[in-house]
Automatic annotation (TrEMBL):
Localization of this protein: Cell membrane; Membrane
Species name: Corynebacterium callunae DSM 20147
Source species, domain of life: Bacteria
Protein name: Ammonium transporter
SUPFAM superfamilies the UniProt entry points to: Ammonium transporter (SSF111352)
Membrane topology: Multi-pass membrane protein
Highest classification ranks of the organism: Bacteria, Bacillati, Actinomycetota, Actinomycetes, Mycobacteriales
A cellular-component GO term for this protein: plasma membrane
TM segment ranges: 14-34, 46-64, 112-131, 138-159, 190-212, 224-244, 256-276, 288-305, 311-330, 342-362, 382-403
Any one Gene Ontology molecular-function term assigned to this protein's record: ammonium channel activity
Amino acid sequence: MTADQIAAASGNSAWMLMSASLVLLMTPALALFYGGMSRQKSVLNMMMMSFGSLGVVTIVYVLWGWSMSYGTQTIGGIFANPFEFFGLKDSIVDAEGNYVEGLAGYPNIIDIGFQLTFAVISTALISGALAERVKFSTWLVFSGAWATLVYFPLAHMVWGGGLLSHFENGFAAWIFGATDGEANVSPIDFAGGTVVHISAGTAALVLAFIVGKRRTFGKSFARPHNLPMVMLGAALLWFGWFGFNGGSAFGANGVAGLAWLNTTVATAAAMLGWLLMEKIRDGHATSLGAASGVVAGLVAITPAAGSLTPLTSIILGAIGGVLACLGVGLKYRFGFDDSLDVVGVHLVAGLWGTIGVGLFAADAGLLTGGGADGFKLFVVQVVIALVAMIFAGVITAVIAYILKATMGWRIDDEKEMQGIDTHEHGESAYDTTGPEIR
């Protein structure tokens, strides 16, 4: 390597280590966000579900998750051989004791850490649909099973060389019946619209129906118990998301800078779009709406952060904020208890962001000069969104029904009414009994 190459690799390594740390922060940030939205008697359980996923998915990722996601021995294009790199065998150092170089030029172990954090946050997102009513032990088992059977295969299919990867003369050609050279269209999922948000949002929808409603759903309004905590969680998620999107450039380069700026402006626009919709619909622009709009904007720009301009990112974000604000009302219309709006925010905004790439990708989208290939890109984006939904929905349902028949999902009605924190964890978030008299 030349001196310039060594310097570039060193800078990229530093950026990717920082990005991995930022994404890792997102799971505790999600715990704050969800915890603040919960009721006082269930805040600890809600936060523990995020921390539980952090523990379980981290371990299974090292054991077989990396191998299933990015192994070279693909199985039907759906997932890779989980035993090829089991326990990160042959993934860290080579036979001479040198660190294995990753595709982006920095050590492979850095990319493993970065990708691990994506698997963790994707699984933890689902927990918001299950507030106040599920066994912690069942959630932990579900976390490992869902990451293994849904997330790792999707990561392989979209990012790891599987069925949905590299559509040039492949999947796009199959869609349009083209021969070599006629379907030069590749899918765009920069940082996880399909793999992360559509999959998690779909899983949340499926679980909301299978697990069932809280006993008080539709009978009383469950207000967030700590809105400052919600806003702090949203702020930390925004901060961590720069690693999520900026790190997906896999280097300290111009694409990372573009992703940073697009993430910022889209999120700001989504927050304003959500607040405007709230004001028109309800007469108030709320702090909860601001925090939720921030997350909706972050979700919407995730698949598009490296492909849009800042101007089209504003448009994408603003529409995403409005759609997500409307989307949270779906649970009342269709009667499913998505407790903390995972479906409205992550599924709706994730779908919009993934499809919106086909409309607004710079010089390639249907509305931005892409021409015939722009139409093809739009169709491809719709198809991968639907494939991700169907795959995640079916596998999640299978896992959920097996756990329902074996471990069971629900805590007792009495425990749910008294508060899940006390009965599942033996503690409460706030001491309201006063000092103990001895």
